[in-house]
Every structure is written in C-alpha cells, then in structure tokens.
Amino acid sequence: QVQLVESGGGLVQPGGSLKLSCAASGFTFSHVAMSWYRQAPGKELELVAGIDKTGDNTNYADSVKGRFTISRDNAKNTLYLQMDSLNPEDTALYYCNFRTPWGPGHWKDYWGQGTQVTVNS
After folding, report:
1. Are 109 and 99 in contact, with CB atoms under 8 Å apart?
2. Amino acid 29: pLDDT
3. What are the DSSP E strand ranges found in 8-86?
4. What does the pLDDT average to over 91-113?
5. Alpha carbon of 84 to those of 64, 67, 119, 121: distances in Å?
6. For the chain, how big is the Rg over CA atoms in Å?
7. What is the pLDDT of residues 3-58, one digit of tens each?
8. How many CA atoms lie within 13 A of 76 on its CB side?
C-alpha cells in the first residue's frame, strides 16, 4: 500500500535550518509530482513547495521563496525540503503529498502523518 513517512522535524531557533525527508513506498515514486504542505494551529493547510517527477521544475509559496528548497532522489524514493532562515511563522506540521487522477475531474490525495517543525527561541 502507499506509504509516505516524513521525518526531520524538530525544535530550532529563529535563523536556523532543518531538512525534512519523506520516504515513499507502495507506488512508482519517479512517476509522480510531489509536494510539501504545512498547517499551523488555527490556520488552513498551505502548499509550501512542489516538484515535478524528474526534479527539473519546482515552485514555492511566496512566504518561503528563497529560504526553502524542495528536491527529490528518485533512486532512493525520497522527497526533501531544506529549510533555511527559519522564523516563528514557519512553525507548523509539515506533510508530504502526491495526487493521482481518480475519475473524470477528480483527484485522490495521499498524505504522510506529518512532522512537526517548531521555531522558537
């Protein structure tokens, strides 16, 4: 079955860095685009970054552009999110995600369990 397992979260001081990983299994990782989302307490789910199946094209939310880098290793079936210059507004539960077509005009989303990132001095 499909599994997405995030890791790498933790407590970090403002200005610090973390690198998140998402280990994928149960599907052909190299065939799908992947994304990182986050959700802070009391806030809506936010798309943080996306990457196409080859890793050649990426996109970022304006709030993280220039600070976060999404990447993937298709040989290791792993997605990454390098996060630099972290600030308290980056505190959230971070999820990796992919979606597949599920009938005409519909998609099925797959999610990991999330990894908590807390930025606090």
Report:
1. yes
2. 97
3. 10-12, 18-25, 34-39, 46-51, 58-60, 68-73, 78-83
4. 94
5. 9, 5, 11, 15
6. 14
7. 999 999 999 999 999 999 999 999 999 999 999 999 999 999 999 999 999 999 99
8. 9
